[in-house]
Amino acid sequence: MIEMIETGTRPKLLAVPMLDFSREFAEIREEVLAAIAAVCESQRFILGPEVARFEAAAAEACGVPFAVGCASGTDALWLALAALGLGEGDAVVTTPFSFFATVSSILRVGAKPVLVDIDEGTFNLSAGAVEEVLGRGGERFAGVMPVHLYGQCADMKAFSSLAKERGLKVVEDAAQAFGASWEGVKAGGLGDAAAFSFYPTKNLAAFGDAGMVTTRDEVVAERSKMLRQHGMRRRYYHDEVGWNSRLDTLQAAVLEVKLRRVEAGNRRRLELASLYNERFTAAGLVGKTTAEGMVLPFCDPRAEHVFHQYVIRAPRRDALREYLTAHSIGSEVYYPLVLSLQESLKFLGYKKGDFPVSERAAEEVLALPIYPELRVEELERVVEAIRRFYA
Ligand SMILES: *Cc1c(COP(=O)(O)O)cnc(C)c1O
């Protein structure tokens, strides 16, 4: 039986928030406040020692020699592209089923985003579709930007070999995938450069905006460092037109503390995802397609998923979401409108029907609450509410 609380005359399900950061904060309060206080005492707010320390620890966690902190995940994507020399006249292939910054960062360096459809199971950029568009020609293809959506790496082996054949640069949008891996290699070390976001909802989260570029290439790392600080190698000598995108020292201090917890957090997310799968299956709600029932997240056996999001395909998705909202159960749609149909990107010339797999995903996906501090009884309440909706 489900827990109820009396609110007025109608019994209501207990609320389950999509995320509750206060639970983690309660656990790390002393440690994180001490780290912030240390920065305040030192008064070194711009690229203080915490930044270099965090970069070294984060590089190690990602299994790469270089990490460069910056102001956001969006800036990390720009920096990675710019440091690799991608720009005017270049075409970069990416997915229409992602956050806006995936495409806007390509535009920001002056390159042209070329969109191709996703894989039905993983929601990630389809290697077959990329190969096809490259074969079609008509563009100066210079890069490919797979996104590790929801915390599961894209098929990086396929992208690496395509890139090698054709001399393309591979930039990972790893914003949702800190700690994830593909065939045993960590996100951040699977392409020529990668971008991470530490936006407060991500698996590794700052207390504000922050991001990071990782790479195995010393030249790319050095260029990223130069570009994040107005293109300066020597103070007030500007070799290139960069911008101000430093990682804030206070954020680095917070991230240093949180980095120590991210692996355990990712393990817990994986356990919670398995538990969701088990409970939905036991409730008889699951199908292979939305014609049969709800479709559970597909985990590619070559990937180690970190479940930044637990995303189902849901029959009557919008009605289900309304029902959950009415019962104070958090859910979210990542993303309701594909990038190819965004108002601001009309000039790219795409139309409805160009990316059928992505467009259908936009109509069917629903993210349910998942974070390391989510309680099992809360997860069970989510499952029970969904069971009642479909009953
Ligand atoms: C969050 C996110 C970004 C942007 O990161 P910010 O830190 O918010 O700028 C880029 N790509 C993807 C896939 C994201 O999820």
* CATH domain fold name of the largest domain: Aspartate Aminotransferase, domain 2
What small ligands are held by the chains? pyridoxal-5'-phosphate
Largest sheet: 7 strands, mixed
User: What is the structural class?
Assistant: alpha/beta
Count of helix runs: 11
CATH class of the largest domain: Alpha Beta
Looking at the structure, what is the overall shape? globular
H-E string: EEHHEHEHEHEHEEEEEHEEHEEHHEH
Distance between the termini: 15 Å
CATH-level-4 superfamily name of the largest domain: Type I PLP-dependent aspartate aminotransferase-like (Major domain)
- Give the low-pLDDT segments: 1-7
Structural Rg: 21 Å
- What average pLDDT do the residues reach? 96
Give the beta-strand count.
16
Helix content: 25-40%
